[in-house]
Design goal:
- The protein is 40% helix and 19% strand.
- β6 (79-83) and β7 (92-98) form a beta hairpin.
- It is built from eight helices and ten strands.
- The protein starts with a strand and ends with a helix.
């Protein structure tokens, strides 16, 4: 780990992390981290030396052209920053990276060890996956937790997925093995409109993270962008009768599966979120 600044003394820090690649359908989770970095004016903290973890023929470095003629190279890696959200008495460590090409276990041990040095006791890992969820309904967010009691306490809908996993799943397991609490939140991105960005899924992840941590998150233009995205997909779907019919089938299936009490829980959660944001002066 390359420390960009000396390790600061952090107050009750929590980690929020996301990775580009397999874990990031529609760039929803990496978009959430980019939003948090900008909204909270995060300052760089450290980065991982990419030599041991990235195949540069697969994940290539980027060269830029500056006005003064310089041509710096940005290497693909995982970077950490730190922020203190306004009105909150704790620090947030933000980790945004690219899924490594090799040595995943060593990669995770390095991150977990560094977080231990910072005093992190809870990690929130964000991901997004392609699913058969309709774009016109609320984005489902499911997840897993290292501690079943923690999952129950935050009313987390647990995923029943079995199969190949990405770096998010491996990192959560590494946190659990080290005795640290970790939660992963996964947003469902409609597979028929998988191209990024997907601001609606990004917004869903941010709202669920806000509920989990009880930290107000400035949303800026995201709600408006999410509405515009949904409207745009509506227009595209209406131009293809087969797609329109498929979307209607997904909507009917989703509506039939949602119990009335589940809808009531969603309304109650939204109202509680509104009250917290109003009391703290955040975006309503």
């Amino acid at each position: 780990m390359i420390e960009l600044e000396g390790l600061p003394e952090l107050v009750d820090p929590v980690l929020i992390a996301a990775f580009e690649g397999w874990n990031d359908a529609g760039e929803a989770s990496s978009g959430a981290l980019a939003h948090l970095e900008a909204a909270w004016k995060a300052t760089p903290l450290a980065e991982i030396d990419p030599e041991d973890y990235y195949d540069f023929q697969v994940t290539r470095p980027i060269v830029e052209m500056r006005e003064n003629g310089e041509r710096p190279i940005t290497w693909p890696t995982t970077r950490l920053s730190v922020a203190r959200p306004p009105g909150v008495e704790r620090d947030v460590v933000l980790l945004r990276g690219i899924e490594p090409n090799m040595r995943w276990r060593s990669f995770c041990r390095e991150i977990v060890g560094f977080c231990g040095e910072l005093g992190v006791e809870l990690a929130v890992l964000l991901g997004a996956l392609l699913n058969d969820s309709p774009h016109s309904r609320p984005v489902p967010v499911v997840g897993t937790a290292t501690d079943p009691g923690l999952a129950r306490s935050i009313h987390l809908e647990l995923t029943r997925y079995e199969g190949p996993t990405g770096i998010v799943g491996v990192l959560q397991d590494a946190f659990g093995a080290a005795g640290m609490r970790a939660v992963s939140l996964w947003a469902s991105v409609p597979h028929y409109v998988a191209q990024p960005p997907n601001p609606k899924a990004t917004l869903a992840l941010l709202r669920r993270t806000e509920d989990l941590l009880d930290i107000p998150i400035p949303l800026g233009d995201l709600p408006e962008e999410a509405r515009a995205w949904e409207h745009g997909v509506d227009e595209l779907a209406s131009q293809d009768s087969e797609v329109a019919e498929y979307v209607r089938e997904l909507e009917e299936r989703k509506d039939a599966a949602d119990l009335p009490e589940a809808s009531g829980d969603a309304i109650a959660a939204e109202f509680e979120r509104y009250l917290r944001r109003r009391d703290r002066g955040g975006d309503a």
